[in-house]
Amino acid sequence: MNEVIKLLKNRMSLRKYSDEKITEEELELILESTLRAPTAGNMMLYSIIVVRDEKKKEVLSKTCDNQPFIKHADTILIFLADLRRWYDFYKFSNVEEFCREKEIEYKTPDEGDFLLSTQDAIISAQTLAIVCESLNIGSCYIGDIIENYETHKELFNLPKWTAPVCMLCIGKYENDKRIIKPRFKKEYIVFNEEYKRLDDKELKDMFKDKNISENNIYGAKNFGQFNYARKTGVNFSKEMGRSVRSMIKEWNS
Fold first, then answer.
1. Quick check: is 173 in a domain?
2. Segment 182-210, tens digit of pLDDT
3. Nearest Cα to 125, choosing from 182, 177, 76, 158?
4. Which of 10, 37, 154, 221 is most buried per CB count within 10 Å?
5. Cβ–Cβ < 8 Å for 136, 17
6. Is residue 246 part of a domain?
C-alpha cells in the first residue's frame, strides 16, 4: 500500500482545529497544487474564494446550518461553479459578432453548463482536500453552502453565472488521534456494467451496523426513519432545494 492510499484511508473530517496557523507559504502551495485538478476541456470552470475574515466566518457558521465549528477553522474555501469568466472573455473576443457572421447559434450558459462547472468545482475541492491531508492539514466539507443562496451571493459579490456549490473548512490537527468512520461495503456501491437496485436482504445487510437508541429524539424505530428525520426531511434539506432552484433560475434568466 503506497503513501497516497494510506493517506486516503486515514483521512477524516476535521471539525476541531489546532491553534497553529496555516502559513501563507502552505496556503500558496495548497492552492497551486489544487489548480492541477482535472477540469473539463482545460477550461477550469470554477473559482475559489479564500475566506479568512473572522466576520465572514462567523456569518458562514450561521448561514451554513448553524455549525459553530466553522468560525474556528483557520481558512475557509468556497468553490464556485463559474461560467462568468468565460463569457466575459467571449464578450472581449467579440464572439457574438463572430457567431452572426458565421451563422452559428450564440448560446448563454444553460443547465448542462451549470452541471459541468459544478463537476469542475467539486473535483477541485477534493483535490484540495487531498493536498491538505498530505501536509497534515485537516478538512471538512460543508454542503450547506448551497443554502441561503441570496445571502451568500451578496456576501461574496457573486455575479450571474457563478454559484457556490462546495465549501471546505481547513485547519491543522490538534493531535494524531483519528476516528475513521467505516464506509458501506463495496458491493453495495460499485456495480459492474449497469446499475443494480438492492433487494431487502441486501439493504438489511448494508445497514446492519447502523444502530440507534430506542429513546432517540425523533421517536424513530429504525435507522431509515432516524436518518430521514435527521437529514433528508428536515428544514435545512428543504432550504437546500429552494436555494438551488433559486440558483438555477438566476443562472437561466
1. yes
2. 999 999 999 999 999 999 999 999 999 99
3. 76
4. 37
5. no
6. no
151: domain range? 3-185
**How many domains does the chain divide into?**
1
pTM above 0.85, yes or no: yes
Q: Grid coordinates standing for 143?
A: 454542503
Q: Looking at the domain assignment, is residue 248 inside a domain?
A: no
User: Measured between alpha carbons, how far is residue 239 from residues 3, 78, 197, 233 in Å?
Assistant: 40, 19, 29, 11
The CATH number of the domain holding residue 139 is 3.40.109.10
**The 75-82 sheet, strands edge to edge:** 46-51, 75-82, 162-172, 137-141
pLDDT reported for residue 178: 87
**In a domain? residue 93:** yes
SS3 track for 103-160: CCCCCCCCHHHHHHHHHHHHHHHHHHHHHHHHCCEEEEECHHHHCCHHHHHHHCCCCC
Q: Can you tell me the distance from the alpha carbon of 29 to that of 193, in angstroms, rounded to the nearest whole number?
A: 39
| Enclosing H/E stretch for 90 | helix 84-92
